[in-house]
Every structure is written in C-alpha cells, then in structure tokens.
Amino acid sequence: MSITTLVKVIQDIMRKDVGVDGDAQRISQMVWLIFLKIFDDKESEWELDTSYKSPIPRQYRWRNWAKNDEGLTGEDLIQFVNNDLFPALKGLATKANVTKLGRVVGSIFEDGYNYMKSGNLLREVINRIENDIDFNKSEDRHLFNDIYEKILKDLQSAGNAGEYYTPRAVTQFMVDMVNPQLGEKLLDPACGTGGFLTCAIEHLRNQAKNVHDRKMLQDSIFGIEKKPLPHMLCVTNMILHGIEVPSNIRHDNTLAKPLRDYSPSERYECIITNPPFGGMEEDGIERNFPQGFQTRETADLFLVLIMKLLKPEGRAGVVLPDGTLFGEGIKTRIKEELLETCNLHTIARLPNGVFNPYTGIRTNLLFFTKGEPTRDIWYYEMKHPEGVKNYNKTRPIHIDEFNIVKEWWCKDSKAGRARRKETEAAWKVSYETIKANNFNLDIKNPHVTEGVNHDPDKLLKGYNKQLEDISTLRDELKAILSEALNNGGGKD
Question: pLDDT digits over 233-253, tens only?
Fold first, then answer.
C-alpha cells in the first residue's frame, strides 16, 4: 500500500468518528500517533546499546498499549489515552530529573489532543499505523518525506495558509551552495517540518569520519517552529535522520524575542530558510525590532532577524518572494541595511510555479555573507526545461535542473565569484546602480528582449482592442470628412 493510500485510508476511518471535526483535526490526530509509532521503532534500535533508558514510563510506550492488535479498544482505550497517556507525556516537559529526550517528547505533546471519541475506530487507526509501516526499514523511513508532504498538502486544502513544502530540489541546491561545514552551527529559524535541516544533516554526514564528528553534527543543527503540528513533524524527521536527541528543535516564535536580547552566543555560521511570506504577524511583534524596521510583514522581519543572528562571515541562503525585491517603504530600508552590512553576492531567480500547488508567487533565492558591504550582485535567471511550461504535483522541479547554475556558480568565495561570466541567463549589477534605483532588487535580465506572447486569451483581448481602436478611428474619420464636405458646400 502506498503512503498516499495509507494516509487516505486512515483519514477515511477518522471521518466516521463524531469527535473529529475537519481535515486539520484529522491530520493532528494522525501525526501524534505516527510520532509515537516512529519513536518506538527508533527506541528498538537505540536499545541495542544496553545503557539506553526510555524517558517514557513503561506502560505508556507504544509497544505496551498499541502494538497488540487485540489490545485496548473501545471505551477502555479512550479512557486510557485521555486520562493516562496524554497527561503522562505532557508531564515529561516539566518532570524533575527527566532526560533531554524526555523533555523533547513532552514539548511536542504540550499542544497535543486526542479528538477521537470512538475507541473502536481509534483501534482501527492504530492497527493500520502499526502493521503498514516499519520505520526501522530504510525503505519505509524514506517514505516519511512522502507522509509529511501529503500532510502539508492536506493542511493547505484545509485552509491553513502559510504552510509551504519547499521542494527537495530547492533545499538541496541551497544547502549545497551555502556549503555548511562540520563544527559550524546551522539554523533554520522557520524550520517547518525540517526540509532544510535534513538536507544539511545529509551534507554534514558526508564529512563525519568518527564518533566525535557525529557528536559534533548532533550538536550543530538548530531549528525553531511556531506551529505545533509542523514542529512535531520536524522533531520526528530529525529522529529519523539520526538526531537522537533533537533538543535544539524548539517550539517557539522566533520573532517574539526582542532583537536586542539575542546574546553573542546566539549566533550562527549558517542560516538556511524559507520564511513564511504573504502573512502578517500579530500586533506587538514589530516592537521587538528597531524603529526603522518595524513592520508586521513576516518575511521582512525574518530578513532583519537573519542579519542579526549571523556571525561575522556567516553565510545565509533565503527564499523570498518578488514583492520583497521591488517593495518600497520599510522594505527599502531593510534592503539598504542588507547591502550595507552583508555581501548579497547572488540572487537566483526561480521559474514560475516552483511552489505549486501551494502558491503561484514568484520566488528568489538570496545568498549573502555577513560582515562586508555589497559591491556587486550576480543574478541568475532559471528557465523551465524544454517542453515544460509549468511545474505541478506530477512534474516538480528536479535537482538536475540546478546543474547548469552550479557549473556557472564557481566556488563560493571572492576568488571563485571573480571567475563568473555573464551569459544569457547571468548578469551583474553594481551597488551604485541598485542604490540609484532606490534599492529595487527586481532587476530584469538585460540579455532577454520581450518575447512574443502566444497566450490565446491575451491575443484575443489584444485583437478585440485593435478592432475597437479601428472602429473609433473610422468614426472619427467619417466625422471629419462629413464636416469638410458640409463646409465645402456652403462656400460654393
């Protein structure tokens, strides 16, 4: 059974339950159950080390109440989950002498809730999850990416705006270009389900040669996520990718802390993120930022925050919409600050539809280094592959489409960037030009002229406009001729 089919089957079972109201609650219910299943599978692996001790009390471990197909069901199961299981798991967050891993489990259940009222239906769901997925099998473990992509798509259709699954090709390219190194601290301040972090883990794992290196990797990955459901998915994702104690993945709003309160120890060598855009923060959040940068627009605030949290010579890769590039007012001041305090050396302009079906907004990848001002910005405009007019669910962007950009990129250093060449897709713009243009970063490709538009609707609209213009001109000519003839007759 495919993951998509399994998720649909589970949701169909939940639809029969009177306690579950809508897709958002069904998804939340499914996620905490899947987390406990995955956590138990991982504990079986960790127990090969005889020193491992589970932070979850014995009677609340998945294997002891869920694993048996003929185990607790009906009203007994509901009573156990509501009155025993959830209070015990939530209590781990504040329990004395609990391990870091125990606190992680407690934190992700802080906002958890069992919506199901039928213990028989809940048993059906549990049996499906238990019998159809084994996350100790590598092939099933890789399917987790499919699970949370399906969950995010369902969240989007359920009306939870702002949940965007960043395509794997984009996360992989950005991590490759920022190129984090073992021993550097890496942050995603809006980590969602952990797509950038998992790519970074794989990137760093190739550098880890021994136990000390692997421990260093464990301690170098940081993420913060505001919403409870993506946070739970991210923690689960980290565990599946070998971060055994993901205590650096926090459930919090990164923007809620005043910028001045960040200490020098809270700085990072690498920040890679796709901050929420198109949304507005709650009243008062903007007061956490300096006077000239106070806005409620989420993407703008994250850009200011990233500049603050980067260490000197720290590197960032950030997904931002076109609106940030050409926006004025506070956006202009933020871009001026970015160019004066960081070297914004590269902007990769993505083709239309990369984030379909979540949003059709055009997006860009900004790469910058903190500590020296921008002198020149290189732009690279990506196009759809031949024969592809747009991306969609069945035809997403592929990592090999970035190969031509990587070949052009050269080594990410001053010397490397000095070897870059202008092409039909790449061009360079000076800081002076950007400043003279009021820090508008929406610079069009100078090597491309306006192409002929072959869109039938637009062509028909243009044709009708031409007909209207011709008709108007004909009427004006008739009036002129009529007036001339009349005037001429009077003179004769």
Answer: 889 889 888 888 899 999 999
State the Cα–Cα distance between residues 298 and 296, nearest whole angstrom.
6
Tell the residue number behind the tokens 């059974």, with chain if given: 1
The arithmetic mean of pLDDT across residues 392-403, rounded, is 88
d(C-alpha 381, C-alpha 48), whole Å: 50
Alpha helical stretches, state H, 442-455: none
pTM: 0.83
Beta strands, E only, 322-423: 342-349, 363-370, 376-381
* Residue 474 banded pLDDT, cuts 50, 70, 90: confident
Task: Return the domain boundaries, the chain.
Answer: 3-135, 168-436
**Separation between Cα atoms, residue 288 and residue 291, nearest integer Å:** 9
- What does the alpha-carbon distance between residue 226 and residue 238 come to, in Å, rounded to a whole number? 17
| Residue 441 Cα distances to 364, 396, 411, 465, angstroms | 11, 27, 23, 34
Burial of 254 (0-12, 13-18, 19+ CB in 10 A): buried
Confidence of residue 491 (pLDDT cuts 50, 70, 90): very low
In this structure, what token pair is assigned to residue 314? Answer: 């720290």
> What b-and-e string marks burial along 138-157, b requiring 16 or more CB atoms within 10 Å of the CB?
eebbeebbebbbbbbbbbbe
Token pair for 44 = 């079986």
Q: Name the token pair of 490.
A: 């009077």
CATH superfamily of 3-135: N6 adenine-specific DNA methyltransferase, N-terminal domain (1.20.1260.30)
Instruction: Give the pLDDT confidence score for residue 162 in this predicted structure.
Output: 47
Mean residue pLDDT of the chain comes to 86
What does the alpha-carbon distance between residue 381 and residue 444 come to, in Å, rounded to a whole number?
Answer: 9
121-145 pLDDT, tens per residue? 999 999 999 988 766 665 555 566 6
Tokens read off for 492: 């004769």
